Amino acid sequence: MPIPQFITVEGPIGIGKTSLSRAINQRYGYHLLQEIVEENPFLGRFYDNIEEWSFQTEMFFLCNRYKQLADISNLHLKQGHSVVSDYNIFKNTIFAQRTLQKAELDKYLKIYDILTSDMPQSTLIIHLSASVETIMQRIAKRGREIENNIDRNYIRNLSDDYELFFERHRYLHPDVPILQLDGDQLDFVERSEDLEYVFRMIEETMNKEQFEHA
């Protein structure tokens, strides 16, 4: 039996993480894990006033992602079934360090370390990046009401945070392959040839034998 794979797709808001995760699910038959976003009762208020609502927002995401990952670990990965997710749990630290004050951040990171100490680790991380202009266009295109007030500077800072994080991650975890894809050049939602290119890049990054239906 092939070793179960755990692919996580990451990048800033609106970059296409869910679309690509769904495409991988359909192509390879992996179980699809999608993060809970619109169900977060604090998210709309967070975009209106980041400083006031950041801790509640980040704690909601952390607790829900912890429960999701515990479930997929027990119900799928430990049973030999591969999984693709439209987020990686480490994103919590990226957002928290951007939005939380030091006292709250210290508390948050302690809770994060406890909850994630035995979480499943990715066998491949796909990092989607793009310019602020492209990201803002895609956010507008998907038309989520709670995202109407997202600030361009917030997206710019978040994109920079992701780039810095992945630089450190490559250094600290050289055994975990990271596939970076340029969202300014690729539109795997609208262009089928771009999606096929992405699949080829995934298969070249990992062993093709691993891409059997889970």
UniProtKB/TrEMBL annotation:
Residues 7-205 form the Deoxynucleoside kinase domain. Transmembrane segments: none annotated. InterPro entries: DCK/DGK, Deoxyribonucleoside_kinase, DNK_dom, P-loop_NTPase. Keywords: Kinase, Transferase. One of its GO terms (molecular function) is kinase activity. It comes from the Bacteria. This is Deoxynucleoside kinase. It comes from Tumebacillus lipolyticus. The lineage of its organism: Bacteria, Bacillati, Bacillota, Bacilli, Bacillales.
